[in-house]
Design a protein that fits this description.
330 residues, alpha/beta, Rossmann fold, 2 domains, 4-stranded parallel sheet, disordered N terminus
Length: 330
Amino acid sequence: MKYTQPSTNLGAPCLDSETWARKLAPRLTRLLLTLTACHRAPQLPLIAIIVPSQDNPYFKAEAEAAAARALQLGYRVRIDAHNDDAYRQDNLIDAAIASNAAALILDNAGTDASISTVRRATQAGIAVFLIDREISAHGIAKAQIISDNDQGARLAAQAFAQALNNHGDYAELIGRESDANAQIRTHGFHAILDASPQLKLVAAQSANWSQSEAFQKTETMLQAHPSISGIIAGNDTMALGAAAAVKGANRPDIRITGFDGSNDAINAINSGELTATVLQPAAFISQLAVDQADLYLHTHTTGKPELQIIPCDLVDKSNAAHYKDFAKLP
């Protein structure tokens, strides 16, 4: 009788070592990745920061101040710019939602156009903190922290009127017409300037917050109205564009006032190219927004009202040394 060795494969086909390795390798790799992930440190929560532009000094200062404070508090950060385009802002908000951002620091693309976007982010569980520009709806964002644009505009107008001795022809450079802050500032300017009957507005143009546009518009206004003795601008970038045009026209007699408190504007005040500007505390507002976001993420409250309005400072030659990087020096 012939002896037959019992099978040890229990009905399974016999596999050589190379086949076993080929079949087991992917499973072992997945197992090792799983075990590694279990021991990996948890990913830091994300704070998304979206501003109108990273080229404009004011908006760049906002983003950098917010990012620095968020990193200091232990968050990851991502900075984007919507370029005042509501459609691009929508896409950036969608990206923040897809990235599971814990909080959003937003200088928005329009007081009305941004409402649905802010609502969508809030409904997705993102704590939204608005800076610089408010939206025309309340109870959606956790906070809206803005400069007092009306108060700042009145300060600028008072300094401008004083520089012109309350008489003479003047021109105004207005910001982007769709921006609520542009309208608030021009209203604040005229609340003061229109009270002086000997001050006459002879030209007003929108330069869309742009230095190059302001340069071109100022050249045109000076040619059409050589009697202009002052130019009041809705931001420093436009004021600096006007200053360049005035310099090119060899009109050192023209007084120019800006708004924002940028380093370039302060340097121009010291050199005599600008008369004054108004500081919007961009760095302080951005840091405050991040601090409140951090508090909210830990306690589910900011302890503050939703709308928070921060006063502006007038900056002229007498105190320019006390301001830098959109902040008052300690």
